[in-house]
Amino acid sequence: MVRFAVIGTNFITDNFMDAGSQCKGFHVQAVYSRTMERAKEYAAKYDIEDCYDSLDDLAAADNIDAVYVASPNALHAKQSIKMLNAGKHVLCEKTIASNKMELEQMLEAAEQNHVIVLEAMRPVFDPGFQAIQENLPKLGKVRRATFQYCQYSRRYDNYKNGIIENAFKPELSNGAIMDIGVYCVHPMVKLFGMPDHILASGYKLSTGAEAMGTIIARYGDEMQAELIYSKITDSILPSQIQGEEGSMIIEEIPDTVKIKIRTRKDKEWEEINIDKKSNNMYYEIEEFIRLVENEESAKEHNQYSLWELAVMDEARKQMGIVFPADL
Asked: What is the mean pLDDT of residues 163-175?
Protein backbone atom coordinates (compact mmCIF):
# COMPACT_ATOMS: atom_id res chain seq x y z
CA MET A 1 0.00 0.00 0.00
CA VAL A 2 1.18 3.52 -0.84
CA ARG A 3 0.17 6.12 1.75
CA PHE A 4 -0.40 9.45 0.03
CA ALA A 5 -0.65 13.03 1.19
CA VAL A 6 -2.30 15.57 -1.10
CA ILE A 7 -1.15 19.15 -1.55
CA GLY A 8 -4.03 21.14 -2.99
CA THR A 9 -7.76 20.96 -2.33
CA ASN A 10 -9.31 21.91 -5.67
CA PHE A 11 -11.33 20.02 -8.29
CA ILE A 12 -8.19 18.37 -9.66
CA THR A 13 -7.55 16.82 -6.27
CA ASP A 14 -11.19 15.69 -6.22
CA ASN A 15 -10.57 13.87 -9.51
CA PHE A 16 -7.40 12.36 -8.06
CA MET A 17 -9.32 11.08 -5.04
CA ASP A 18 -11.98 9.55 -7.27
CA ALA A 19 -9.50 7.84 -9.59
CA GLY A 20 -7.23 6.69 -6.77
CA SER A 21 -10.11 5.08 -4.90
CA GLN A 22 -10.32 2.62 -7.82
CA CYS A 23 -6.61 1.69 -7.62
CA LYS A 24 -5.28 -1.24 -5.62
CA GLY A 25 -2.76 -0.13 -3.01
CA PHE A 26 -4.01 3.47 -2.82
CA HIS A 27 -4.59 5.20 0.50
CA VAL A 28 -4.72 8.91 1.33
CA GLN A 29 -3.39 9.52 4.81
CA ALA A 30 -3.05 13.31 4.90
CA VAL A 31 -4.04 16.60 3.32
CA TYR A 32 -2.16 19.90 3.27
CA SER A 33 -3.70 23.33 2.80
CA ARG A 34 -2.48 26.82 3.58
CA THR A 35 -5.05 27.01 6.39
CA MET A 36 -5.89 24.30 8.89
CA GLU A 37 -9.56 25.18 8.51
CA ARG A 38 -9.50 24.32 4.80
CA ALA A 39 -7.41 21.19 5.43
CA LYS A 40 -9.93 19.91 7.99
CA GLU A 41 -12.84 20.74 5.71
CA TYR A 42 -11.29 18.72 2.89
CA ALA A 43 -10.30 15.88 5.20
CA ALA A 44 -13.88 15.58 6.42
CA LYS A 45 -15.11 15.35 2.83
CA TYR A 46 -12.97 12.25 2.16
CA ASP A 47 -12.44 10.86 5.67
CA ILE A 48 -8.73 11.69 5.60
CA GLU A 49 -7.03 11.16 8.96
CA ASP A 50 -4.23 13.76 9.12
CA CYS A 51 -4.30 17.50 8.36
CA TYR A 52 -1.40 19.91 7.85
CA ASP A 53 -0.96 23.61 7.26
CA SER A 54 2.85 23.33 7.45
CA LEU A 55 4.85 21.80 4.61
CA ASP A 56 7.77 21.22 6.99
CA ASP A 57 5.56 19.15 9.27
CA LEU A 58 4.17 17.22 6.33
CA ALA A 59 7.68 16.50 5.05
CA ALA A 60 8.65 15.20 8.51
CA ALA A 61 5.66 12.86 8.83
CA ASP A 62 6.78 9.22 9.02
CA ASN A 63 3.45 7.74 7.94
CA ILE A 64 3.51 9.23 4.43
CA ASP A 65 5.12 7.40 1.49
CA ALA A 66 4.18 9.70 -1.38
CA VAL A 67 2.78 13.15 -2.07
CA TYR A 68 0.43 14.25 -4.84
CA VAL A 69 1.20 17.90 -5.68
CA ALA A 70 -1.71 19.84 -7.20
CA SER A 71 -0.75 23.40 -6.29
CA PRO A 72 -0.19 26.21 -8.86
CA ASN A 73 2.60 25.46 -11.34
CA ALA A 74 4.95 28.03 -9.81
CA LEU A 75 4.99 26.06 -6.54
CA HIS A 76 5.50 22.59 -8.02
CA ALA A 77 9.30 22.50 -7.97
CA LYS A 78 9.80 23.99 -4.51
CA GLN A 79 7.15 21.84 -2.85
CA SER A 80 8.20 18.68 -4.68
CA ILE A 81 11.88 19.11 -3.84
CA LYS A 82 11.02 19.58 -0.16
CA MET A 83 9.11 16.29 -0.18
CA LEU A 84 11.74 14.46 -2.24
CA ASN A 85 14.48 15.59 0.14
CA ALA A 86 12.38 14.15 2.97
CA GLY A 87 12.42 10.77 1.26
CA LYS A 88 8.91 10.89 -0.16
CA HIS A 89 7.91 9.94 -3.69
CA VAL A 90 6.13 12.67 -5.67
CA LEU A 91 3.37 12.51 -8.26
CA CYS A 92 3.18 16.08 -9.54
CA GLU A 93 0.36 17.52 -11.63
CA LYS A 94 1.06 18.82 -15.09
CA THR A 95 2.79 20.97 -15.99
CA ILE A 96 5.33 19.38 -13.66
CA ALA A 97 7.54 22.50 -13.42
CA SER A 98 7.73 26.07 -14.64
CA ASN A 99 10.63 25.24 -16.93
CA LYS A 100 13.17 22.54 -17.79
CA MET A 101 15.71 23.88 -15.29
CA GLU A 102 13.28 23.36 -12.40
CA LEU A 103 12.50 19.83 -13.53
CA GLU A 104 16.20 18.99 -13.68
CA GLN A 105 16.49 20.15 -10.05
CA MET A 106 13.53 17.95 -9.10
CA LEU A 107 15.05 14.92 -10.84
CA GLU A 108 18.37 15.52 -9.09
CA ALA A 109 16.64 15.61 -5.70
CA ALA A 110 14.77 12.39 -6.52
CA GLU A 111 17.97 10.61 -7.53
CA GLN A 112 19.89 11.78 -4.47
CA ASN A 113 17.15 10.56 -2.14
CA HIS A 114 16.36 7.32 -4.02
CA VAL A 115 12.73 8.22 -4.61
CA ILE A 116 10.50 8.73 -7.64
CA VAL A 117 9.10 11.90 -9.16
CA LEU A 118 6.58 11.53 -11.98
CA GLU A 119 4.49 13.99 -13.97
CA ALA A 120 0.75 13.30 -13.75
CA MET A 121 0.40 13.43 -17.55
CA ARG A 122 -2.81 11.43 -17.84
CA PRO A 123 -3.13 11.18 -21.66
CA VAL A 124 0.05 9.14 -22.15
CA PHE A 125 -0.75 6.53 -19.49
CA ASP A 126 -4.22 6.08 -20.95
CA PRO A 127 -5.27 2.98 -22.99
CA GLY A 128 -6.30 5.41 -25.73
CA PHE A 129 -2.71 6.52 -26.17
CA GLN A 130 -1.57 2.90 -26.18
CA ALA A 131 -4.03 2.29 -29.04
CA ILE A 132 -2.51 5.22 -30.94
CA GLN A 133 0.99 3.78 -30.50
CA GLU A 134 -0.02 0.24 -31.43
CA ASN A 135 -1.82 1.31 -34.61
CA LEU A 136 0.69 3.91 -35.79
CA PRO A 137 2.55 1.44 -38.08
CA LYS A 138 -0.61 1.09 -40.19
CA LEU A 139 -0.05 4.65 -41.44
CA GLY A 140 3.32 3.93 -43.02
CA LYS A 141 5.91 6.69 -42.85
CA VAL A 142 4.43 9.49 -40.75
CA ARG A 143 4.64 12.89 -42.43
CA ARG A 144 2.34 15.15 -40.42
CA ALA A 145 0.72 15.25 -36.99
CA THR A 146 -1.90 17.81 -36.00
CA PHE A 147 -2.77 17.79 -32.30
CA GLN A 148 -5.31 20.26 -31.04
CA TYR A 149 -6.94 20.89 -27.71
CA CYS A 150 -8.97 24.07 -27.40
CA GLN A 151 -11.25 24.40 -24.41
CA TYR A 152 -13.10 27.61 -23.56
CA SER A 153 -12.44 28.33 -19.89
CA ARG A 154 -15.14 29.57 -17.57
CA ARG A 155 -12.32 31.55 -15.97
CA TYR A 156 -12.13 33.56 -19.19
CA ASP A 157 -15.69 34.78 -18.57
CA ASN A 158 -14.53 35.91 -15.14
CA TYR A 159 -11.49 37.56 -16.73
CA LYS A 160 -13.75 39.57 -19.05
CA ASN A 161 -15.67 40.69 -15.96
CA GLY A 162 -12.49 41.92 -14.30
CA ILE A 163 -11.89 38.88 -12.09
CA ILE A 164 -8.38 37.50 -12.72
CA GLU A 165 -8.08 33.92 -11.51
CA ASN A 166 -4.93 31.80 -11.20
CA ALA A 167 -5.34 30.28 -14.68
CA PHE A 168 -4.51 33.65 -16.23
CA LYS A 169 -1.68 34.69 -13.90
CA PRO A 170 1.79 34.30 -15.47
CA GLU A 171 3.36 34.99 -12.08
CA LEU A 172 2.07 31.53 -11.10
CA SER A 173 3.57 30.00 -14.27
CA ASN A 174 0.10 29.68 -15.73
CA GLY A 175 -1.43 30.29 -19.13
CA ALA A 176 -2.74 28.34 -22.08
CA ILE A 177 0.47 26.51 -22.96
CA MET A 178 0.93 25.28 -19.39
CA ASP A 179 -2.69 24.34 -18.81
CA ILE A 180 -3.85 23.17 -22.25
CA GLY A 181 -0.97 23.16 -24.73
CA VAL A 182 1.01 20.67 -22.65
CA TYR A 183 -1.58 18.02 -23.56
CA CYS A 184 -0.47 18.41 -27.19
CA VAL A 185 3.26 18.79 -26.55
CA HIS A 186 3.79 15.73 -24.35
CA PRO A 187 2.06 13.21 -26.66
CA MET A 188 4.03 14.66 -29.57
CA VAL A 189 7.43 14.12 -27.96
CA LYS A 190 6.45 10.69 -26.67
CA LEU A 191 5.39 9.55 -30.14
CA PHE A 192 8.03 11.28 -32.24
CA GLY A 193 10.82 12.45 -29.94
CA MET A 194 12.38 15.88 -29.56
CA PRO A 195 11.91 18.05 -32.68
CA ASP A 196 14.85 19.67 -34.42
CA HIS A 197 13.19 23.07 -34.72
CA ILE A 198 10.04 24.82 -33.50
CA LEU A 199 8.20 27.97 -34.49
CA ALA A 200 5.66 29.38 -32.03
CA SER A 201 3.07 32.14 -32.03
CA GLY A 202 0.46 33.07 -29.46
CA TYR A 203 -2.03 35.64 -28.22
CA LYS A 204 -1.57 37.26 -24.83
CA LEU A 205 -4.14 38.89 -22.58
CA SER A 206 -3.57 42.20 -20.81
CA THR A 207 -2.22 40.33 -17.75
CA GLY A 208 0.58 38.94 -19.91
CA ALA A 209 -0.93 35.46 -19.72
CA GLU A 210 -1.06 33.57 -22.97
CA ALA A 211 -4.63 32.70 -23.99
CA MET A 212 -3.99 30.60 -27.10
CA GLY A 213 -1.15 29.55 -29.34
CA THR A 214 0.22 27.46 -32.17
CA ILE A 215 3.49 25.54 -32.30
CA ILE A 216 4.96 24.11 -35.49
CA ALA A 217 7.60 21.44 -34.85
CA ARG A 218 9.92 20.12 -37.53
CA TYR A 219 11.57 16.72 -37.48
CA GLY A 220 14.42 17.04 -39.95
CA ASP A 221 13.16 16.77 -43.51
CA GLU A 222 10.89 13.87 -42.58
CA MET A 223 7.78 15.28 -40.93
CA GLN A 224 6.24 18.19 -39.09
CA ALA A 225 3.73 18.57 -36.29
CA GLU A 226 1.23 21.36 -35.61
CA LEU A 227 0.01 21.93 -32.09
CA ILE A 228 -3.07 24.13 -31.67
CA TYR A 229 -4.36 25.04 -28.21
CA SER A 230 -6.59 27.65 -26.60
CA LYS A 231 -8.37 28.63 -23.40
CA ILE A 232 -10.65 31.16 -25.10
CA THR A 233 -12.19 29.02 -27.87
CA ASP A 234 -13.49 25.47 -28.31
CA SER A 235 -12.17 23.13 -31.00
CA ILE A 236 -14.65 20.92 -32.81
CA LEU A 237 -12.18 19.11 -35.08
CA PRO A 238 -10.28 16.03 -33.88
CA SER A 239 -6.52 15.56 -33.89
CA GLN A 240 -4.92 13.70 -36.80
CA ILE A 241 -1.77 11.83 -37.78
CA GLN A 242 -1.04 11.49 -41.49
CA GLY A 243 1.23 8.83 -42.95
CA GLU A 244 2.10 7.89 -46.50
CA GLU A 245 -0.16 4.81 -46.30
CA GLY A 246 -3.03 6.16 -44.22
CA SER A 247 -4.34 8.65 -41.71
CA MET A 248 -5.55 8.41 -38.11
CA ILE A 249 -8.21 10.58 -36.50
CA ILE A 250 -7.96 10.93 -32.72
CA GLU A 251 -10.95 12.09 -30.73
CA GLU A 252 -9.97 14.07 -27.61
CA ILE A 253 -6.19 13.84 -27.36
CA PRO A 254 -6.19 14.22 -23.52
CA ASP A 255 -8.81 11.48 -23.05
CA THR A 256 -9.01 9.36 -26.20
CA VAL A 257 -12.05 7.11 -26.40
CA LYS A 258 -11.98 6.42 -30.14
CA ILE A 259 -9.56 6.44 -33.05
CA LYS A 260 -10.38 6.00 -36.73
CA ILE A 261 -7.96 4.89 -39.41
CA ARG A 262 -8.37 5.18 -43.17
CA THR A 263 -5.79 3.65 -45.46
CA ARG A 264 -4.89 5.48 -48.65
CA LYS A 265 -5.11 2.40 -50.83
CA ASP A 266 -8.58 1.01 -50.05
CA LYS A 267 -10.20 4.16 -48.59
CA GLU A 268 -11.95 2.05 -45.95
CA TRP A 269 -12.40 3.16 -42.35
CA GLU A 270 -11.34 1.14 -39.31
CA GLU A 271 -12.90 2.34 -36.07
CA ILE A 272 -11.26 1.46 -32.75
CA ASN A 273 -13.21 2.11 -29.58
CA ILE A 274 -11.24 2.13 -26.35
CA ASP A 275 -12.68 0.42 -23.30
CA LYS A 276 -11.36 2.19 -20.22
CA LYS A 277 -12.14 3.94 -16.95
CA SER A 278 -14.27 7.08 -17.16
CA ASN A 279 -11.73 8.95 -15.02
CA ASN A 280 -8.46 8.41 -16.87
CA MET A 281 -6.35 9.76 -14.00
CA TYR A 282 -6.65 6.16 -12.81
CA TYR A 283 -3.88 5.02 -15.17
CA GLU A 284 -1.23 7.54 -14.06
CA ILE A 285 -1.90 6.65 -10.41
CA GLU A 286 -1.77 2.94 -11.20
CA GLU A 287 1.61 3.35 -12.92
CA PHE A 288 2.97 5.51 -10.10
CA ILE A 289 1.98 2.94 -7.46
CA ARG A 290 3.53 0.17 -9.59
CA LEU A 291 6.84 2.04 -9.82
CA VAL A 292 6.90 2.76 -6.08
CA GLU A 293 5.97 -0.74 -4.96
CA ASN A 294 8.39 -2.44 -7.39
CA GLU A 295 11.15 0.09 -6.67
CA GLU A 296 11.50 0.81 -10.38
CA SER A 297 12.86 3.92 -12.07
CA ALA A 298 10.67 6.59 -13.67
CA LYS A 299 13.57 7.68 -15.90
CA GLU A 300 11.89 6.77 -19.19
CA HIS A 301 8.73 8.72 -18.32
CA ASN A 302 10.77 11.67 -17.09
CA GLN A 303 12.68 11.94 -20.37
CA TYR A 304 9.45 12.86 -22.13
CA SER A 305 8.73 15.51 -19.49
CA LEU A 306 12.18 17.00 -20.07
CA TRP A 307 11.56 17.15 -23.83
CA GLU A 308 8.08 18.59 -23.20
CA LEU A 309 9.51 21.46 -21.16
CA ALA A 310 12.36 22.04 -23.62
CA VAL A 311 9.76 22.57 -26.36
CA MET A 312 7.59 24.77 -24.13
CA ASP A 313 10.53 26.85 -22.90
CA GLU A 314 11.51 27.65 -26.49
CA ALA A 315 7.90 28.33 -27.48
CA ARG A 316 7.46 30.75 -24.58
CA LYS A 317 10.74 32.45 -25.46
CA GLN A 318 9.52 33.05 -29.01
CA MET A 319 6.16 34.34 -27.75
CA GLY A 320 7.72 36.61 -25.12
CA ILE A 321 6.19 34.78 -22.18
CA VAL A 322 8.45 35.04 -19.14
CA PHE A 323 7.71 33.54 -15.73
CA PRO A 324 9.41 34.69 -12.51
CA ALA A 325 10.91 31.18 -12.31
CA ASP A 326 12.76 31.86 -15.57
CA LEU A 327 14.65 34.71 -13.94
From this structure: 93
